[in-house]
Design goal:
Helix content is 51%, strand content 15%. The protein is of the alpha+beta class and 387 residues long. The longest helix is centred in the middle third of the chain and has 35 residues. The structure holds flavin-adenine dinucleotide.
Length: 387
């Protein structure tokens, strides 16, 4: 596996163990059928509790069954999952960073006890409802609202593009609290079997096909007051979750890129044209040289991000740079790897085209490439250019 500057040398025993466990798990249980799942637009649901058993959901949290592993270990886990498929990493990211994290950070004791162990074991599935049909890049304009009705809230609105909503037991829904004069955004834990909740599946995807995506319809859905996340109000709530998930994506994308590189490297030595392996041609070597270099740079950024996060010094802007760069790298390198595989490269027998298609989603969700560009633009000029 590509590790040109020997980052492995600095890993601790626990970090190697988590990485190797994830690598073995995907090799044995997921890789053999992932091409079929991608083609059929299905997610291998039977692995959800198995991933829980192995500690793949938010192992970087502390307590309630989570072992509080290092941020590097968590990153390596995301890297191995996404080296298999972005759908797999998305499952773990949503469950861990977008559902368990807000409950852990902002939930009541009762909410933590009810949900964190079950989500961690993969006995319950969660989803995160922020995006709406008319509000994607600017979620602060959300229209979903919560009206106080005396002993609880009534939620009305719709969310879309929600990973796992059709299979979720609970949704973290972000809505405007109209009972407060400032109408701040609040987080609500909405069990998906409540009256008025619908979770239609989106079926027309050409990207992230091995992942279930859907809507959340909220038609006068009553939730008791104890389902509100008490510890946060305002956009800080959802944005802080996205910072956690984007951290995992910055690592995960390196895994997808590395897998493309390894497929291309192998193919370059296996495939003969003009009387010998295509890897002897300088044009092919140049592609591998560039891929190897770009992926190594992305790895270095991910490792540095882990150090900053571990020290409590990671800022959202750091994450924007790493997510933006590493996903772009994976998207570009997947395409070059696909090219090196010739006609075989367009099939599901090899991973690059699947990764390439997946990267279109990863490039767009959790803040589009453009939006992270604007975040960095503001960081470097002091002038926000969002409007
Ligand atoms: P828009 O915001 O409409 O953007 C369209 C284009 O305009 C983009 O290229 C964008 O970069 C550009 N643009 C927008 N504003 C600006 C600006 N100010 N300056 C320059 N360019 C701009 N959301 C959830 O809440 N939960 C989930 O689990 C989830 N999972 C997803 C899974 C998949 C498969 C996909 C595709 C999306 C998912 N999303 C989820 C939604 C995702 O986060 C949004 O698609 C994303 O935020 C972009 O919003 P949008 O699609 O409405 O695009």
């Amino acid at each position: 596996m590509l590790d040109f500057v020997d980052l492995e040398a600095d890993l601790g025993q626990e970090e190697r163990m988590i990485r190797d466990t994830a690598r073995e798990f995907v090799t044995e249980h997921v890789k053999p059928d992932i091409g079929d799942h991608f083609e059929n637009g299905t997610f291998p649901k039977e692995i959800i509790p198995k991933m829980g058993e192995l500690g793949f959901y938010a192992p970087n949290l502390e307590g309630y069954g989570s072992p509080n592993v290092s941020e590097t270990a968590y990153g390596l886990l995301m890297q191995e999952l996404e080296a298999c498929d972005s759908g797999l990493r998305s499952m773990a990211s949503v469950q861990g960073a977008l559902v368990m994290y807000p409950i852990h950070a902002y939930g009541s004791e009762a909410q933590k006890e009810e949900w964190l162990p079950a989500l961690g074991r993969g006995e319950a599935v969660g989803c995160f409802g922020l995006t709406e049909p008319e509000h994607g890049s600017n979620p602060s304009a959300m229209e979903t609202r919560a009206e106080w009705d005396g002993d609880g809230y009534v939620l009305t609105g719709s969310k879309t593009w929600i990973t796992n909503s059709p299979i979720a037991d609970v949704a973290v829904v972000w809505a405007r609290d109209r009972s407060d004069p400032d109408t701040p955004v609040r987080g609500f834990l909405v069990e998906t079997d409540r009256d008025g909740v619908s979770t239609n599946k989106i079926t027309e995807k050409l990207s992230l096909r091995a992942s279930i995506t859907g809507e959340i319809g909220l038609n006068d859905v009553y939730v008791p007051e104890e389902n509100v996340l008490p510890g946060v109000s305002g956009m800080k709530g959802p944005l802080s979750c996205l910072t956690q998930a984007r951290y995992g994506i910055a690592w995960g994308a390196v895994g997808a890129a590395r897998d493309c590189f390894e497929e291309a490297r192998q193919y370059a030595t296996d495939r003969d044209q003009f009387g010998g392996p295509i890897g002897r041609f300088q044009l092919q070597q140049r592609k591998l040289a560039e891929m190897g270099t770009q992926i190594t740079l992305a790895q270095l950024l991910a490792y540095r991000l882990a150090e900053l996060k571990e020290r409590g010094e990671m800022r959202p802007q750091h994450v924007s740079m790493a997510k933006r760069n590493n996903v772009r790298t994976a998207r570009d390198q997947a395409r070059i790897a696909r090219e090196m595989l010739g006609g075989n490269g367009i099939t599901t027998d090899y991973s690059p085209m699947r990764h390439m298609a997946n990267m279109e989603t990863v490039y767009t969700y959790e803040g589009t490439h453009d939006i992270h560009t604007l975040v960095l633009g503001e960081e470097f000029t002091g002038i926000p250019a969002y409007q």
